[in-house]
Amino acid sequence: MATETKSCTGSALLQPISEIVDLPLDQVNFVVCQLFALLTACWFRLYLHPSKTSPFIRHVVATLLGFYLALFCFGWYALHFLVQSGLTYGIMIFTGVEHMHRYCFVVALGYLTLCQITRVYVFDYGMYSADFTGPMMVITQKITSLAFEIHDGLTKKEEHLKPSQQYLAVRKMPSLLEYLSYNCNFMGILAGPTCSYNDYIAFIEGTCYQRKRLESNGKENGKCKQSDPSPKRDVILKLGTCALCLLVYLTFYRVCPVERIIDDPYFTSQPFFLRVLYLYLSMLSLRPKYYFVWTLADAIHNAAGFGFSGYSKDGTPQWDLISNLRILNIELATSFKTFLDNWNIQTALWLKRVCYERCPYHPTAATFLLSAMWHGVYPGYYFTFITGISVTLAARAVRHNVRQHFLGSSTLKLFYDVITWASTQIAICYTVVPFVVLAVGPSLRFYWSCYFYLHLACVLLVVALPVKRRTSRENVQEKQSPSRSQPADQSIHSSTDNNCNQKEKTT
């Protein structure tokens, strides 16, 4: 039954509700705790506002509430959050800042991997519902991000950092309370998302609004300047989105689960195009589960007053500083890259900041490997990432060789967009099936039933449509520019900037 409690390590207080709604107890605990966090966030913003209380009290309350929610959902497994945070904080304090970011990275990721291995292969392989390693994944992001930010702030000069690194650099070692509050506060302990340490401290101290006002290029009316912007409108909109997503998921995914296309003989005997259509509808009804979780987490942060990113051109406050997805951009994506750019945004930024921008050799391969390790030890994750590499290369080859032929008229462009939208949705569904079913057997059965069509198509496209080199023209310009108008050192600096920009575009 869906309401069995053997896989739930948290409180059994809500077991009657679990039986009524016919959902696993740990999922019921998670949703109830997030709703409690939402109400607490409103209270936190109104009654523990920085103008009324000290940062110390706000840190203490945020941390204690976070641990309470963790204990309710995961029981004593929540102690792993303390152990992981304590080990890495000790490394930060007792190890020199020159190397502590590397040690923290290895220890945090290693401890997370050890917990994932024991949970999957020792205790409960194939547990689809919430588990204690989920919050540890976000804590790992925060630990490693902060370690690199402290390293940048305490060991590097301002001119040696990129603009984004200058903004994120931490200039003093955090106290233990600040560290625990950042990692385990009640707003993000269960579902994240990750955020920068400087943004979190600015929120706690109440300086986030002033800094964003100075950074904003939009119009600010007198009311915005005199008082903090209200998140009420954005919170209500996000809660409405959550309700709609939850309704879609509970209504439709039970009707067309993805496992049916693998195990049900009736579906495996259907024509190929019908199976592809069913797969698309199945994944379309599955994604609202992730939309619900991430949008609710975003709303909780906004309700507490965290997430303000500045003002729009008309003076409207924007609350998308730590938003994790853009739903319309995902569903209407016309390329694999566009889909990924709008899915799990904060994790993509974390991978870029701690790996891609810092890895001296093969940064793309290293980033894929880190992403796979961070997600877990299920074989399905690695099937998905390997398939994703081939799809990315094929999509790049098609775009470089085909797209320009359809830009001559609006009709051709519309036709191209429709074809690429359908291709992207099919490719995404095909790629993420192992991510959903997790195990080797079902993944291979699915790909075999589809004759590995996308794998073969990607290989053929990469071979037949190689990506044209884009560096020849840049090399000619670099050879000409130093002799004409730039000194040697300026030319080298310009070349370095070009390389950095190319890296960011590739990411």
UniProtKB/TrEMBL annotation:
GO terms for cellular component: endoplasmic reticulum membrane. GO terms for biological process: lipid modification. Residues 478-501 have a biased composition (Polar residues). Signal peptide: none annotated. Keywords: Acyltransferase, Endoplasmic reticulum, Membrane, Transferase, Transmembrane, Transmembrane helix. The chain crosses the membrane at residues 28-48, 60-80, 100-122, 380-398, 418-440, 446-467. Its main location: endoplasmic reticulum. Residues 474-507 are annotated as: Disordered. It comes from the Eukaryota. It is a multi-pass membrane protein. It is found in: Endoplasmic reticulum membrane. GO terms for molecular function: acyltransferase activity. This is Membrane bound O-acyltransferase domain containing 2a. It comes from Pygocentrus nattereri.
